[in-house]
Design a protein that fits this description.
Distance between the termini: 56 Å
Structural class: mainly alpha
CATH superfamily: Ferritin, core subunit, four-helix bundle
CATH architecture: Up-down Bundle
Shape: elongated
Largest sheet: none
Helix content: 55-70%
Bound molecules: fe (ii) ion
Length: 183
């Protein structure tokens, strides 16, 4: 499209969604973003499962913590969906598998969640590199605050995992950490 003064603009490009599209998106980046949305949705379901696991064992603080995390992951998925819509793309929602509900103890559960956060960051890093390679600045700028948020999440999970290692499964120590999370 070229803007011509006084003329009606009729040839604005549209994306797969039918919305106006300023610039097309590399298909491999689009595919990676679809996969990433699913990772965020899977993380939301996984944290919901963890919240339930904690509730069943009287860990109210941990349960609240994971319930909030579950909601945060849904917000992340929404942010990515909104980004694709802003870029004129369709949002394909893929199959989700059932979350894990089986852990031997809360430290085991936290190790699992820390690894999940690290996997989400790895996916973001991969998309970032792809966007850099194809000079997709819109995508790198979109990803910047998300990656910053991931570093903060990893730090928070590492802190709690470190405390749980110190607690060494002692019930009284675990309930102190649990009540701190409830505040
Ligand atoms: Fe997330």
């Amino acid at each position: 499209m070229t803007y011509t003064k006084g003329n009606l603009v009729t040839n604005v490009k549209t994306g797969p969604s039918g919305r106006a599209m300023a610039h097309p998106m590399d298909p491999s980046i689009l595919d990676a973003l679809h996969q990433h949305i699913n990772m965020e949705r899977a993380a939301s379901a996984q944290y919901f499962a963890m919240s339930i696991w904690c509730s069943e064992r009287e860990f109210k603080g941990f349960s609240n913590f994971f319930n909030k995390e579950s909601q945060n992951e849904q917000v992340h998925a929404t942010n990515f969906a909104n980004y694709l819509i802003a870029r004129g793309q369709n949002v394909a929602l893929l199959d989700l598998s059932a979350p894990n509900q089986d852990w031997t103890n809360i430290e085991d559960l936290f190790s699992y969640s820390f690894q999940m956060e690290a996997d989400v960051t790895a996916s973001l890093n991969q998309i970032y590199s792809m966007a850099e390679r194809s000079s997709d600045t819109r995508t790198t700028v979109f990803l910047d605050p998300t990656i910053e948020g991931q570093t903060a999440s990893e730090d928070e999970f590492a802190y709690l995992l470190g405390k749980l290692k110190l607690a060494n499964n002692d019930p009284s120590a675990l309930f102190i950490i649990d009540s701190e999370l409830n505040k």
